[in-house]
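Can anyone check this?
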Amino acid sequence: MHADLTPVIAATAQWLTRAFPPSGGALAAALCEAQARQAVTVAARLRYPSAMDAALLSLAGPGGSARLDQVTGGGDEDAWRTWVDEVVASWAACLLADPHLARLAVGSLDADTPAEFRRLLAPDATDRRSAVLLRHPDLLFPVATLHHAALLARLGPDPALVA
């Protein structure tokens, strides 16, 4: 992962966990955050695959969460929200809602091992309970559909069969 993506990954994962909060206490919050961060990391690496892409992102900025906040009915004026990337959030929502698409996305990365993304790819019962809202396809639908077609196009012709 390019270090330049770190602020976008952190802000976008935080946006997801605030929009779709964990169910339970501190452990649930940590597990939900881990799942969101893994999905956002995969989405960010797909969206910004090269060092040049990451450098351009740092110059132009990701765009913020305004449209996402409109879709979900949330939001406030926190400065960190300017680092949220709408496309990355949408792609991460797609990956969280569709395990097959998540496997395709992780497989398309130059990742040495999918173990890095275990909570995204193979969540256990505790992970699922902790992130029940974050993984609920109906709740994620408004965010996921914003850029679903672009994710399928990025992954190539095979994922179109999934949709």
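Reply from J.R.: I decoded it. The chain has one domain: 3-154.
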